[in-house]
Amino acid sequence: MAERETASSVPPKCGPYISSVTSRSMNLVIRGVVLFLIGVFLALVLNLLQIQRNVTLFPPDVIASIFSSAWWVPPCCGTASAVIGLLYPCIDRHLGEPHKFKREWSSVMRCVAVFVGINHASAKVDFDNNIQLSLTLAALSIGLWWTFDRSRSGFGLGVGIAFLATVVTQLLVYNGVYQYTSPDFLYVRSWLPCIFFAGGITMGNIGRQLAMERLSLEVCIRGSLFLMGRGG
């Protein structure tokens, strides 16, 4: 009797479909693809704003899309978005500090809207000089982090992403891939790190939310299987 009760309390093995959905590798692929597509879409929209205001200039022979953007920009931004979105929850787990501040999709959508607004301001708002614009965007970017993140790991990753992306952009402009009008920070605009920082925070929030959705799905599935096993 004791052995029979013990056997009935153990949930049955997951079927092949359930196993594929809940497996970590499949989940990483799904989240990576979603983050990549989001990054591609944001790159097309935001780069269009920059080009319309002549903030960035691409050579005519590399313009090859309906959004007037160089063909390689969306894939690069999509890949970077996938890496950033997967890195944030991974760092949270490594540090043992799960991020729970404003973890709902409505907050994530507001974060995306604020990020688009910051990028829009960099292209549309006219300031007397670039220093005023840079300070304003820096304050807005830090405000975005404080409003939607507030984690030390998020701030540190955002600063690291901003530094690395700025260095890569400097190298691209130096090699003539494209250029910025009126550069005031070596070959780029001084406010560019602020945009990269805000973008890192935004994609990190999306990645964290997608990771939480996976955990919720897995808990529900395993709980349902356990109850089915008990009921059987």
How are the elements arranged and paired?
Layout (H helix, E strand, L loop, with lengths): L1 H8 L6 H7 L1 H29 L3 E2 L15 H23 L9 H20 L5 H19 L3 H23 L4 E2 L11 H40 L1
Antiparallel strand pairs: 1-2
Helix pairs in contact: 3-4, 3-5, 3-8, 4-7, 4-8, 5-6, 5-8, 6-8, 7-8
Describe what this molecule looks like in 3D.
The structure is a single chain. The protein has 232 residues and is mostly helical. It has one domain. It contains eight helices and two strands, in the order αααβααααβα. It has a two-stranded antiparallel sheet. Helix 3 runs parallel beside helix 5 and helix 3 packs antiparallel against helix 8. The longest helix has 40 residues. It starts with a helix and ends with a helix. The N terminus is likely disordered.
- The DSSP helix count reads 8
Amount of beta strand: under 5%
Q: Mind describing the biggest β-sheet?
A: 2 strands, antiparallel
* Series of secondary-structure elements, N-terminal to C-terminal: HHHEHHHHEH
Task: Sum this structure up briefly.
The protein is mostly helical. Helices cover 73% and strands 2% of the residues. Strands 1-2 form a two-stranded antiparallel ribbon.
